[in-house]
Design brief:
single chain; alpha+beta; Cytochrome p450; 5-stranded mixed beta sheet; 3-stranded antiparallel beta sheet; 14 helices; 46% helix; 13% strand
Length: 399
């Protein structure tokens, strides 16, 4: 059977999507001046050692990144600051808080699907997978409904521009692409900065309001801390949940026998989503920077080197997963890295899982069949380190 990746021509350089094994689990790329890590135990070793493998990677980028874009961004923070910042915001994603959000997310999903109720064909991404997580995060941050289309526009602009960025490009090209992506990011950050200022002028009882009042080590959080947390939340929710929904529908389309199993037994839906995260990992890679000389899988890494930990490849490592290139909604042992691992495990994973579960169950309820449109193939993200669709036209048969 033709693989899903072969069918659609997804990222030819991502060999694992085509059922191929890495030649070496750890490999240095001279052109990129970076280490690539493909194996599961090697990835786990790196993700579990933030002292040696720092998340403050922006300093290694040739174009440089202003601190105003990284201060307070949990993805760019190491302990002890990371621990204190994460503790401040983790209460927003406890099981109880996420459970309390489910009725609103269910109602919102119904509302979005009602808008295409009379359509036999629609784009799953623009109709549901994009607006659902953006709206949820915007509501958590109390961003006015009238402004939410701006957030989606800015995030699309950022991700589409960064899709052209490759660490293998020369410095000038990297700087050009990076600067292009900074346009919409600056607009979004400026908006969040004014939104934060308004919250300081008129305090309120929501996530943003609690951050404005919070202290770390006896000091109030700066605007940069608050703004970059909001930015991280929006981008992470947008990428992970949006691509999770799109990738799951794409997998079920390619493996209709697996779709039939999940439709017949809805208790399989949570496991189906986990399998989707493993099989088509939305965040295909994460970045770390070595702080000292270290050896991984017999390869000696120098300090100050970029390390790409390829979740997508590690999630196909046969040393960890049985029949790793099969998409199996009944897979029970599935410790995938789709949400990361260690201190940077995705803070919003419970929310993403719940949004995915609600969305897929309601899609199953409303449509007896949801298939890709052979006349309008999906458009995949060009992001070097992401796997997912920007557009997914589907043909629907109502239940």
């Amino acid at each position: 059977m033709t693989s899903l990746a072969e069918r659609w021509g997804i990222h030819p350089e991502h060999f694992w999507l085509y059922g191929r094994e890495p030649e070496r689990m750890v490999r240095f790329d001279e052109q990129m001046d970076a280490w690539n890590v493909y194996g599961y135990p090697e990835a786990m070793e790196i993700l579990g050692d933030p002292g040696t493998f720092s998340s403050e990677t922006a300093k290694l980028l040739p174009m440089g990144v202003d601190e105003s874009f990284t201060e307070g961004d949990l993805l760019q923070t190491d302990p002890p600051d990371h621990r204190e910042l994460r503790k401040l915001v983790s209460h927003a994603f406890t099981p109880r808080v996420v459970a309390d959000l489910e009725p609103r997310i269910t109602a919102l999903t119904h509302e979005l699907l009602d808008a295409v109720a009379d359509e036999d064909e629609f784009d799953l991404m623009s109709s549901l997978a994009y607006p659902l997580p953006v709206t949820v995060v915007a509501e958590l941050l109390s961003i006015p409904a009238a402004d939410r289309h701006l957030l989606e526009k800015w995030m699309r602009g950022m991700t589409e521009s960064l899709g052209d960025l490759s660490m293998a490009d020369d410095t000038e090209e990297q700087e050009r692409v990076f600067e292009e992506s900074m346009g919409p990011m600056r607009q979004m950050i400026d908006y969040l900065r004014e939104h934060t200022a308004e919250c300081r002028r008129h305090p309120r009882e929501d996530l943003l309001g609690r951050l404005v009042e919070a202290e770390v080590g006896g000091l109030k959080l700066t605007d940069n801390h608050i703004v970059n947390f909001g930015k991280m939340l929006l981008i992470a929710g947008y990428l992970t949940t949006t691509m999770l929904i799109g990738n799951t529908v794409l997998c079920l389309d390619h493996y209709p026998e697996q779709a039939a199993k999940a439709r017949a037994d809805r208790s399989l839906v949570p496991g189906m989503l986990e399998e989707s995260m493993r099989y088509l990992s939305p965040v295909a890679a994460t970045y770390r920077a070595t702080t000292r000389e270290v050896e991984i899988a017999g390869q000696r890494m120098e300090p100050g080197k970029m390390v790409l930990v390829w979740y997508g490849s590690a999630n196909r490592d046969r040393r960890q997963f049985t029949d790793p290139h099969a998409f199996d909604v009944t897979r029970t042992k599935n410790p995938h890295l789709g949400f990361g691992r260690g201190i940077h495990f995705c803070l919003g994973a419970p929310l993403a899982r719940m949004e995915g579960r609600v969305a897929m169950n309601l899609l199953f309820d409303r449509f007896s069949e949801l298939r890709t449109d052979p006349d309008k193939p999906p458009v995949f993200s060009l992001g070097y380190d992401t796997t997912g669709v920007n557009s997914l036209p589907v043909r629907a048969v109502r239940a």
